[in-house]
Amino acid sequence: MTNEPNQSHRTLAVDIGGSGIKVMVLDTEGSPLSDRQRLKTPQPAKPKDVIDTILTLAKQQEYDRVSVGFPGVVQNGVIKTAVNLDSDWLEYDLASSLTQLLSKPVKVANDADIQGFGAISGKGVELVITLGTGFGSALFVDGKLVPNLEMGHHPFRKGETYEEQLGRAALEKEGKKKWNNRLGKAIANLDRLLSYDFLYIGGGETKNINFDLPSNAKIVPNVSGLLGGIKLWAS
């Protein structure tokens, strides 16, 4: 009987990435109740194919509600940008679609926002950036999210955006040395811009960071992108 509250509020956390789609079941405190499951993101990453992948992963789990991290701006469950997936996502109501297909309540948010919820302390100004297919960002003030911050598509240097200079394509084209040099400049630039108290860096390409980060910055595990999903249901 002691486990019943967790049993009645199992959250299926879904993280949609440019290269992989991951899921994990969380209890009411955000602790894992299952191992992380992953399938490759379909290419091209059109809504039907991505959703079919989510449904395949969801069949293997027991849950009561769903949280989804999406790599783009999300407003009220509707996709507003999807630079690293497919243009068919624009104005797509992912929350309503998954609610109908899974017969469970679903909430959808930007993936960097969710990763931030899984990483931050909730004190002061905290910035989260994610280094993966693209460049994600989320800003929190005393634990409260500043919505729809898309730093990745803001001009950074040499007429290019943060994503163009630091996304996976740039890493593969320019190499680790130049990519790390750019990342160091980006961190200094963002610190001057936002005067944050702490910086959290997530995403699959953090494994390529080879310089000492500032004392107010650290790398966070990729699983934060799933663990933060419980916070969508906190309010």
The gist of it:
With 235 residues, the chain is of the alpha/beta class.
Number of helices: 8
Q: How large a portion of the residues is in β-strands, by DSSP E?
A: 25-35%
N-end to C-end Cα span = 26 Å
The whole-angstrom Rg is 17 Å
pLDDT under 50 segments (min length 5)? 1-7
Q: SSE string, helix = H, strand = E?
A: HEEEHEEEHEHEEEEEHHHEEH
The outline comes out as globular
**What's the number of extended β-strand segments?**
14
List keywords for this structure.
5-stranded mixed beta sheet; disordered N terminus; 235 residues; alpha/beta
Walk me through this protein's architecture.
The structure is a single chain. The chain is α/β, with parallel strands linked by helices and 235 residues long. The protein has helices spanning 4-7, 47-58, 94-102, 111-117, 162-166, 168-174, 176-194, 224-227; strands at 11-16, 20-26, 37-40, 65-70, 74-75, 78-79, 106-110, 125-131, 135-141, 144-146, 155-157, 160-161, 198-202, 217-219. Strand 9 and strand 10 form a beta hairpin. Helix 6 (168-174) packs across helix 7 (176-194). The two termini are 26 Å apart.
Write the layout of secondary structure elements.
Blueprint: H1 4-7, E1 11-16, E2 20-26, E3 37-40, H2 47-58, E4 65-70, E5 74-75, E6 78-79, H3 94-102, E7 106-110, H4 111-117, E8 125-131, E9 135-141, E10 144-146, E11 155-157, E12 160-161, H5 162-166, H6 168-174, H7 176-194, E13 198-202, E14 217-219, H8 224-227
Parallel strand pairs: 1-4, 4-7, 8-13, 13-14
Antiparallel strand pairs: 1-2, 2-3, 5-6, 8-9, 9-10, 11-12
